[in-house]
Specification:
The complex is a heterodimer.
Chain A: H1 12-43, H2 45-60, H3 67-78, H4 82-110, H5 114-122, H6 127-162, E1 163-166, E2 169-172, H7 176-185, H8 190-220, H9 243-246, H10 258-267, H11 270-292, H12 298-305, H13 313-344, H14 346-359, H15 364-379, H16 381-410, H17 414-422, H18 427-461, E3 463-464, E4 476-477, H19 481-490, H20 498-528
Antiparallel strand pairs in A: 1-2, 3-4
Helix pairs in contact in A: 1-2, 1-4, 1-6, 2-11, 3-4, 3-11, 4-6, 6-7, 6-8, 7-8, 7-15, 8-15, 10-18, 11-20, 13-14, 13-16, 13-18, 15-16, 16-18, 18-19, 18-20, 19-20
Chain B: E1 2-13, E2 16-28, E3 33-37, H1 44-52, E4 59-64, E5 67-68, E6 76-79, H2 91-98, H3 106-119, H4 135-148, E7 153-157, H5 165-180, E8 188-193, H6 196-202, E9 205-209, E10 216-221, H7 235-250
Parallel strand pairs in B: 3-8, 3-9, 6-7, 7-8
Antiparallel strand pairs in B: 1-2, 1-4, 4-5, 9-10
Helix pairs in contact in B: 2-3, 2-4, 3-4, 4-5, 6-7
Classes of the chains: A mainly alpha, B alpha/beta.
């Protein structure tokens, strides 16, 4: 008997090719969209006032939250045809990949030193020539690191994008993600799932270390500031990447991440965000009703909020926030311990970093089916899903914390380290007096990022629409905001309802923004003083 | 009191070995004010760090009271070019925290810290964070912190080079003033600088280093009576400056 017997196993190379092609095409589209819009938003005042808060808001809503909207759009246009599904998969990937490039370009253009701009002006380099000779060269590194990020984001969301259950029907496009989902949910085959996961991880790791890593090193030489290299190899986890190491203390191109994340948080007033939120919700509202061909009437509103489950919304919200908080605390604790240990002890780092490098190449969402199949065998399907959700959330959030903690510990200025040694701080005293305070700002940025990714994951994790043998052919869900949103988005009416979907999306956006404004922004402001000025 | 014996040090950079210090020999006696000058990158700061016990020589050794100096000790403290203050602590806490290894009672530490801040003229800024202090004030905190440990030796790593000239001048006088105080245990000063005028103004002896790899290429004994303020326009002052510059140029 073979280790794996599966009728589709011979299509594996083809699936690999399709997924690679899909992500590559989407990357191309993202670059084609991100560069002109990024340049526009960073050079034109009016465009920046309109575009940047809007896009910023879009990216602060968990991407998986508006998957249903996009699916609805394409499936209704193409009546469920394969081309429509392919397009919706690409668009889903686009919504996860494009921001990194856009913000990378905006950041890079804004970071062009004033003296370069003035020199260009005084030599009469303006208009198209200015774009050609000043802007384009300046954004190349940002484009590469942005693409790296986008690439990783693409792999992260691929499994969600390739296999969609909508209105009780499964829509899937051939690819590694959908094959993995099928292996877990349809064939319920743990061996096969693990094999596919290992394959995905290997591909991501291979391409990261081979292609992107080299490109980034090349690109780093073209920046305006000196490059500081730190000995952590490989790309950062999906999402936040290498440039952190390549360009410490430099704002040239750190897409959507780290410092930039904190900058974005600080950039807008609450009023501006509220306005952007209102505008975008109205826009989404119009789009949905245009597609669905219905204008909301009083009856429509009734239907939307008469759902019996709607009353549970506060409890659902609390449950989901609770899951996120539990996972956050666990990942903060572990990341802090491991990060500090790795930065303080070379021997530990030597073991830890390679694991870290490979670990970050695993698309976390792809882990989900595997953990679920495995854990549900132990705990039963319900508790299995609950544990899986928490475990996957922790695994997802922890990399952002690691990345930030390790980066920050490594970038503690040598003078501060020397002061610690001169004053005789050792062991615990060294950690409480020097290390922890020095990395507090990084912990906040790590927290912002891990909550952001956590929201995405939980929307994916609370609901299993697949008709699995495990759960007796029934979809399985955990009570929570994420699962309610999924049901509202993917199930047929009256459970599914576009208006309520919008409402729930709005609620998530409000929670995300409120946490930013009330918690993270305050902490960042407080810790701003802690940044060591060099 | 401090003796550098055949100190040699090199660093690895991108797989090639760069020799930083080569057979460095000198000594500093108790009560001396010695200034080490040399071009940028000649290993001055590395030498200072070896004396502080922060780095180790590849071969040769530094003796402190005839004992090999291998790890930091409160008897030798340091002030830094970029001040080295902990940004998350106030001026007072920055001094107080330094005393933790010597004194276990917090009230006592705060008392001592306050008195040293007063000495460097920072009364009223105890609860200000470094972020809100000017460069000169930050260095005053750095000086207070170093002195609060009551060291025998004060090491200074280009302590005034990130300040504007006016502030630097005031702080130089502050350091010389502190040196004149017999109430303090600190009476030996070792400063690294690339500013020849500063070195001649402050030091009893100026030791000159060559470009990398750093070797000692000369020593100028500065025989100008103190206080030296009034000699700043005196030909004798410029004679010493020229002498140091001449040794520096020879080293090229």
């Amino acid at each position: 008997m073979n280790f794996v017997e599966n009728p589709e196993i011979s299509s594996l190379p083809y699936y690999t090719f399709r997924t690679l092609l899909r992500i590559t095409i989407t990357l191309g589209i993202s670059v084609a969209w991100g560069v002109p819009f990024g340049i526009l938003a960073s050079t034109n005042k009016t465009a920046s006032v309109i575009l940047v808060p809007f896009i910023d808001l879009l990216q602060s809503i968990p991407i998986l939250g508006y998957f249903p909207v996009i699916v609805l759009f394409f499936i209704s246009i193409f009546h469920g045809g394969e081309f429509g599904i392919e397009l919706s998969a690409i668009l889903l990937l686009f919504t996860s990949m494009a921001w990194a490039i856009f913000f990378g370009v905006v950041g890079a253009v804004k970071a062009i030193p004033v003296n370069i701009i003035e020199a260009a002006q005084s030599f009469g380099v303006t208009g198209f020539k200015y774009i050609r000779h000043v802007i384009l060269p300046a954004i190349v590194p940002a484009l590469i690191s942005g693409s790296t990020l986008a690439w990783c984001d693409g792999w992260f969301f691929m499994i969600a994008a390739e296999y969609i259950v909508y209105l009780g029907t499964t829509y899937s496009v051939p690819g590694l993600g959908s094959y993995l989902a099928k292996a877990a949910y349809v064939y319920n085959d743990l061996n096969l799932s693990v094999i596919i996961l290992v394959l995905i991880t290997a591909i991501v790791f291979y391409l990261n270390s081979l292609t992107w890593h080299r490109l980034m090193e090349k690109a780093a030489t073209g920046t305006y500031k000196p490059v500081t290299r730190i000995g952590l190899s490989g790309l950062g986890k999906l999402g936040v990447i290498r440039p952190r190491w390549l360009h410490l203390g430099d704002r040239i191109h750190r897409p959507k991440s780290l410092i930039l994340a904190s900058k974005w948080v600080k950039r807008y007033t609450r009023l501006e965000k509220a306005v952007a939120l209102a505008i975008s919700l109205a826009a989404a509202f119009l789009i949905i009703y245009y597609i669905a061909g219905q204008i909301p009437s009083e009856v429509g509103f009734h239907e939307a909020f008469e759902d019996p489950e709607f009353l549970n919304l506060p409890i659902y919200t609390a449950l989901t926030l609770g899951r996120l908080a539990v996972a956050y605390v666990i990942s903060l604790g572990i990341a802090l311990g491991m990060g500090v240990l790795a930065a303080e002890h070379k021997k530990f780092a030597a073991v830890f970093y390679p694991i870290y490098d490979i670990g970050q190449a695993i698309p976390i969402l792809a882990l989900f089916p595997i953990f679920f199949v495995y854990l549900s065998r132990i705990f039963g399907s319900r508790l299995g899903l609950e544990t899986t959700a928490i475990v996957v959330l922790v695994l997802d959030m922890i990399w952002y914390m690691f990345l930030n903690v390790v980066g920050a510990v490594k970038s503690i200025p040598s003078e501060i380290r020397e002061v610690g040694r001169l004053l005789g701080f050792k062991g615990l005293r060294r950690i409480t007096h020097i290390v922890i305070p020095a990395i507090l700002p990084a912990i906040v940025t790590g927290s912002i990022l891990s909550w952001g990714t956590g929201w995405n994951t939980i929307i994916f994790a609370e609901y299993m629409p697949y008709e699995m043998e495990l759960s007796g052919g029934q979809p399985l869900s955990l009570p929570g905001l994420g699962s309610y949103l999924d049901k509202t988005g993917y199930l047929p009416p009256p459970k599914g309802n576009a208006l309520r979907l919008l409402f729930l999306l709005g609620e998530i956006a409000v929670i995300v923004l409120a946490m930013e404004g009330l918690v993270w922004r305050r902490l960042l402001r407080k810790f701003e003083k802690y940044r060591v000025e060099v | 009191m401090i003796e550098s014996k055949h100190v040699t040090k090199s660093f690895e950079l991108e797989k090639s070995k760069i020799s930083v210090l080569e057979d460095v020999n000198f000594s500093v006696d108790e009560g001396d004010f010695v200034c080490l000058v040399g071009p940028s990158g000649c290993g001055k700061s590395t030498l200072l760090r070896i004396i502080a016990g922060l780095e180790h020589a590849d071969s040769g050794k530094v003796l402190f009271h005839d004992q090999p100096q291998i790890s930091p000790t409160p008897k030798i403290t340091m002030i830094f070019q970029l001040f080295g203050l902990l940004p998350w602590k106030t001026a007072l806490e920055n001094v107080e925290v330094a005393l933790e290894i010597l004194e276990s009672k917090k009230e006592a530490r705060l008392e001592v810290a306050k008195s040293y801040l007063r000495m460097v003229g920072l009364e009223g800024f105890e609860n200000t964070y470094p972020h809100d202090l000017s460069g000169g004030m930050k260095q005053r905190v750095g000086i207070a912190r170093a002195l609060a440990l009551q060291p025998e030796v004060l090491l200074m790593d280009e302590p005034f080079s990130s300040l504007d000239e006016l502030t630097a001048k005031i702080l130089r006088l502050l350091v010389l003033d502190i040196r004149g105080k017999s109430s303090l245990a600190t009476n030996t000063f070792f400063m690294v600088s690339h500013n020849v005028e500063e070195a001649v103004f402050m030091a009893d002896r100026v030791i000159v280093m060559s470009p990398r790899p750093g070797r000692i290429i000369g020593e100028v004994k500065v025989d100008i009576p103190r206080p030296r303020m009034q000699y700043l326009r005196d030909p004798v002052y410029f004679k010493y400056v020229d002498e140091v510059v001449e040794v520096l140029e020879k080293g090229k």
